[in-house]
Amino acid sequence: xxDKQLLDLESKxxxxxxxxxxxxxxxxxxxxxxxxxxxxxxxxxxxxxxxYSAANFGYKNKRLNEALKKQIDTLxxxxxxxxxxxxxxxxxxxxxxxxxxxxxxxxxxxNVGGAQAIEDAIKVVRNHTGxxxxxxxxxxxxxxxxxxxxxxxxxxxxxxxxxxxxxxHFVPYPYRFRCTCVEKKEDCCNLxxxxxxxxxxxxxxxxxxxPKNNSCEYGAFFVEPVQATGGYIVPPMNYFKALKKxxxxxxxxxxxxxxxMGFFRTGKLWSIEHFGVVPDIIVFGKALTNGLNPISxxxxxxxxxxxxxxxxxxxxxTFSSNPLGTxxxxxxxxxxxxxxxxxxxxKKGAYxxxxxxxxxxxxxxxxxxDGLGLALRIEICQKDGxxxxxxxxxxxxxxxxxxxxxxxxxxxxxxLDIGGYYKNVFTLAPSLxxxxxxxxxxxxxxxxxxxxxxx
Length: 455
Ligand SMILES: Cc1ncc(COP(=O)(O)O)c(C=O)c1O
Prior knowledge:
By secondary structure, the protein is an alpha/beta fold. The protein has helices at 3-13, 50-53, 62-72, 85-102, 114-129, 146-150, 195-199, 239-249, 302-305, 323-338, 341-362, 390-402, 436-454, and strands at 29-33, 36-39, 44-47, 106-111, 135-137, 169-171, 209-210, 215-216, 220-223, 253-257, 281-284, 296-301, 366-372, 375-380, 412-415, 418-419, 425-428. The chain folds into two domains: 3-60 and 340-454, Aspartate Aminotransferase, domain 1, CATH 3.90.1150.10; 75-338, 3-Layer(aba) Sandwich (Aspartate Aminotransferase, domain 2), CATH 3.40.640.10. Strands 4-12-11-10-9-5-6 form a seven-stranded mixed sheet, sandwiched between helices. The chain has a four-stranded mixed sheet with strand order 1-2-3-15. Strand 1 (29-33) and strand 2 (36-39) form a beta hairpin. It is globular.
């Protein structure tokens, strides 16, 4: 079938609710390789979002695909009440890595999508603390199942689905470019935004704590160490230490949602490793399998998840530790052990960010650029460099999707993802194997799209 016929059928039979049709341009892709996607006419698109950071290790990664093919020919299906080697080895590798880095023993529990793993983390917290409400960040995103939506800040995601009695208490994220504590463009960061949160624990009348027995009404704080959908916001390096001190004092658990920032997106296996705190629970998904046969999971401290307290069937999904997923996950962990991402990713990230900074000097509409490893942000503004400019952001994205850019000497497209509180931030998550030459090309394509959008 040709694109026109397919789009005609799509308009009749496909729901829009599963997040397509954000862009004006509707592309149908046929092939993928490395950092490129190819449409039905064979036009090449440089992808700077890699399936929202699920395909960190490149499309059609040979080694990972081979692991999957091998598993298809040996043990492709198995109900999760029975065991298989890849599941045990994968859990062991993750738990041992965390034990080595954070000095804490724990266990790994699998599920399928990210939001389902978040649900499992919520269950572990509820089971351990007996508390239902959670703290979470404004701008945070933890998925779209009902419980994950309850701790995701955007009201747009809740509005149509009735009252959420378990809605989180949302706290401002330390977003330096749009700090909630100072007037525009002034830099503060003496962690002023944390002070009102700390204050809430001073008296029962601030609504969260019974100081007589130090019982907090909230079970855990769900944290994205680098805020992802919120616009790849990197917090001040000392922020989480200060937050954790408050939480520890009142027995509130710290849950690190690594679903988007895990697996070396930021230059470390877990992005929370940058910030000098030990989480109680880590939630992961996406790049664990490089986007192949998805599995997700949580790691939790032993006392939260040991079989005595979290026994068989405390949560369950038919496909939770499916062998194709665990085989891909294990291959990802082995690939990581043999690679040098901890050195390479920060180096590539710095090279990329330097070029974005140079671009920012040329265009006042680029209000902010920042990044940690290969999680990079470009915040698009009006000419004042601050007022969000959603129209320009959308225009750049749509131009990229048209596949008619010429930087690099041939007709190409550019795939960009938009996030941020005002939908004016390009959240760049390229393949971790992106070369300097490809970074140069990506920057040139971006500049060309920006120039076209500016007219
Ligand atoms: C930080 C974070 N948490 C949770 C999720 C939800 O994961 P999934 O879409 O696999 O349910 C996402 C997805 O983008 C995410 O970025």
